[in-house]
Amino acid sequence: MATALLFACGQKQPRQEAIVYPETAKTDSFHVYYGDTVAEPYAWLENDTSAETKEWVAAQNKVTQDYLAKIPFRESLKNRLTELANYEKIGVPFIEKGKYYFFKNDGLQNQSVLYVKNTLDGEAQVLLDPNKLSDDGTVALKAIKFSRDGKYMSYAISRSGSDWEEIYVMDLATRSLTQDKIEWAKFSSVSWCGNGFYYSAYDAPKKGKEFSNVNEYHKIFYHKIGTAQSADKLFYENKNYPKRFYSSSVPEEENAVFVYEGGAALGNRLFVQDLKKTGSKVVEIASDDSYDYTVVDMTGNTFYVLTNYKAPKYKLMKGDIANPKIENWTDVIPESENVLLSAGFTNGKMIVSYDKDASVRSYVYSVDGKREREIEFPTFGTASFSYDKKEKEIFYAFTSFTYPTTIFKYDIEANKSEKYIEPKVKFNPEDYTTEQLFYTSKDGTRVPMFLVYKKGLKKNGKNPTLLYGYGGFNISLRPSFSTFRLPFIENGGIYVMANLRGGGEYGEEWHIAGTKMNKQNVFDDFIAAAEFLVKEKYTSAEHLAINGGSNGGLLVGAVINQRPDLFRVAIPEVGVMDMLRYHLFTIGWNWASDYGRSDDSQEMYRYLKAYSPLHNIKNDGTPYPAILITTADHDDRVVPAHSFKYAAQLQASDTGDAPKLIRIDTKAGHGGGKPITKVIEEETDVYSFIMWNLGMKYK
């Protein structure tokens, strides 16, 4: 049996206590790509519902939990994480038909509760408590939407972290559920129109394969209140493209339905149906799906679109429903040097937000696109606004690494912000420093990173450091507050977030520079970040841990193989580890615009195989860092088979004595909607593993 040695806290020498990994059966399974035979000895783990896989999961979890139970400060760390998380969290208020709605968590509630007030200073009443939908908090509220007449609220829930959703409708006058229920919705908006709403769903999946089989033939339906789902009208489908997403939006005046088709390229196609014209059809108005098109508002016949069409850093355009095709659109806010994130209308003005060096900057604009003034924030960070065209009040939430999410009320006429709700967290932000630095990647590209640490840090190369990255899908990483990082930093650690190529921090060109045959740039950026931290004496390889989830899990897996000498600890979470077969499960085909596919061409196959974490694990005695893999049994986005096969291959390979463990959560998915009890348990295990294997002493 494969073994590893358990390291003692704060010591270089391991205790002589071996980890005995479960025996993982090998088969003769293989796949052939362009004449290359690639062995798949652990392909049987792709069957996530088999008895053999369940036994394997139980055995792996036992070994992992036995290891973690021996970490002496694990319980103390859990207590501190629980203490820090136990504070009142209130979301940004939003106004519907003159009433104020907001989410609140008393501290350790598994799910946040939806409240309503008749006035801003009035008494809050519970409207919907998701904690009452399950005994263990594993039913999560995913989205809510109000009917235009204020009579109904639809809400979607997911179970055990799955992407599958059920949609229900509440009568707001009686606060009781109607008989309406929608099943097998996924990646769906709810767009109210008349006495019903549009939504997106799949046909019911094969029983027993709900969380692994590929999802095909997404459709948009219209549901009329008071009728069964079986009576819903099919509004839009495209049988020519089974592996694409379809969603809808309806403007406030309910004079049009916009349809989005995505999943084939980096952007989407855009269609519209004019509801004012009897018998009108759905017509395509933007066909080049290498660009993004998002309708942000519509007034009368004029609709406004946020797009990167011939503008890599995005711009705001407008069109007329009478001549809706893109060639007739005109610019309202042209592309500028920073990435345009959002634009919306309120109080006869626009609030416009940009991304500047991975932080949000927001401004007031005139409705014809002229910048008037900046909205001042406390420091660099992230802001999100809540407002309505017809309401005077404006709110926004602001957060940064050591600035807990705070709700502000904004007076647009006076250009003045005042704190509306400030959380009380049991830590002192004045004890910490946040700095943004820029480093040079392998090819000379300038890349930003944020560092957070306690004041008084000495750059002696011995500071425990956790480097986090993502680098994909045009997703930007921006400053945000999390109590779960604090114990690591309190005990002398440095938290680092690198803004790698593949993300959206500098627009579509930055994104494309980390996709397909450019994916190695992402890994080079991350490796260069680690080398910079070592060179500048913040840390050393002996004191450096790395972490990333989903596409970031792929990142961690890839750089472990490429530079195992550079890291002491690695945490790949819910990662895409099999780059040759990822597109064959659930919605994995949707990632091809970023990754490419092994069946695209021989060149693409060889490129993917060259960095695929599963296929490049060394087996020659090269010491690997201590690795804790995390995944979950209900992850139907990045199926757990990725992590299962990767763990099996790691444990079977000769990569030194450091532990190679996998933590498999139950009744959990890709991460969204996870109850706080499960989050605290997972963060306790992850940070215990990191701190223990970095030799940190918990105080």
Structural commentary:
With 699 residues, this protein is of the alpha+beta class. Among the domains are: 53-83 and 450-694, Rossmann fold, CATH 3.40.50; 252-333; 336-424. Helices cover 16% and strands 35% of the residues. The chain contains ten helices and 41 strands. It has an eight-stranded mixed β-sheet with strand order 34-35-37-36-38-39-40-41, sandwiched between helices. It is globular. Residues 5-16 have low confidence and may be disordered.
Structure classification: alpha+beta
| Known CATH architecture of the domain at 53-83 and 450-694 | 3-Layer(aba) Sandwich
Can you summarize the main beta sheet?
8 strands, mixed
- The proportion of strand residues reads 35-45%
CATH class of the domain at 53-83 and 450-694: Alpha Beta
* Structural shape: globular
CATH topology of the domain at 53-83 and 450-694: Rossmann fold
Mean pLDDT: 95
Cα Rg: 25 Å
CATH superfamily of the domain at 53-83 and 450-694: Alpha/Beta hydrolase fold, catalytic domain
Side by side, the strands of the main sheet go 34-35-37-36-38-39-40-41
* Unreliable segments of 5+ consecutive residues: 5-16
Number of strands: 41
Q: Ends: how far apart?
A: 36 Å
Write the layout of secondary structure elements.
Layout: E1 3-7, E2 14-20, E3 30-33, E4 36-39, H1 51-69, H2 74-85, E5 89-90, E6 94-96, E7 99-105, E8 113-117, E9 125-128, E10 139-146, E11 152-159, E12 165-171, E13 176-185, E14 191-192, E15 196-201, E16 219-224, E17 233-236, E18 245-249, E19 256-262, E20 268-274, E21 283-286, E22 293-299, E23 302-307, E24 315-320, E25 330-333, E26 339-346, E27 349-356, E28 359-366, E29 371-375, E30 382-386, E31 394-400, E32 403-411, E33 416-421, E34 432-440, E35 446-454, E36 465-468, H3 486-490, E37 494-498, H4 508-512, H5 520-535, E38 544-549, H6 551-562, E39 569-573, H7 592-595, H8 602-611, E40 626-632, H9 641-652, E41 660-665, H10 676-693
Parallel strand pairs: 36-37, 36-38, 38-39, 39-40, 40-41
Antiparallel strand pairs: 1-2, 3-4, 5-7, 6-7, 7-8, 8-9, 10-11, 11-12, 12-13, 14-15, 15-16, 16-17, 18-19, 19-20, 20-21, 22-23, 23-24, 24-25, 26-27, 27-28, 28-29, 30-31, 31-32, 32-33, 34-35, 35-37
Helix pairs in contact: 2-10
